[in-house]
Sequence to fold (215 residues):
Amino acid sequence: MSTLRRAFLTGLLVLAPLGLTLWVFVWLFRSIDDWMRPLLSRAPYLSATLPEEGFTGIGVVTAILLVILVGVFANNLLGKAFFGGLDRIINRIPWIKGVYGAAKEISGVVFVEEGSAFRQVIIFEYPRRGLYSIGFVTFESEEEEDESDLYHVFLPTTPNPTSGYFLMVPRGDAKVLPITVEHGLKLIVSAGSVVAEEDLEALHRAAHDLGGHRS
Fold:
């Protein structure tokens, strides 16, 4: 039973990124298709010769071309100035700026290959002493290390790591784990069931160190 459960969770880890990517592109295609279809159906030649599948194919091609054109535009000076101005306008609108800013940050983490919002994985006592949580450092002071300095930490929920809490954890109350961010995310999504032997040893050792430090 445990083998079947592990296989199921591993399958989720593999399919989740694919599912997210597919969902984004399906939503984008449907939005563009709903917008383009009435315009295309008004063209006499297209409406008389193209079947339903033809309109769908044109919608797919249009969606791909639109994404490419927006990307090309955003990479030049005029596009950077335009989207920079758009950002400033949206960031002045209450409520909307919060949603837009969060969506932009998440998109950057999801779609940008180089770099990550998460710097390292740490373990700390939460929600009370004797219980340990895994979090991801999003910001730390660049100055000389001091145990009173605070880590800015994202504490994700299981099994959905896109929701969670923002915590400020003193350096002295946390241990940096010698595991990658990718392995840390797998640990969260699998509720602790998918973990390499060396990562498990590092987790337990860090938890014991924190307990000893407290006493």
Summary: The first helix runs from residue 2 to 41.
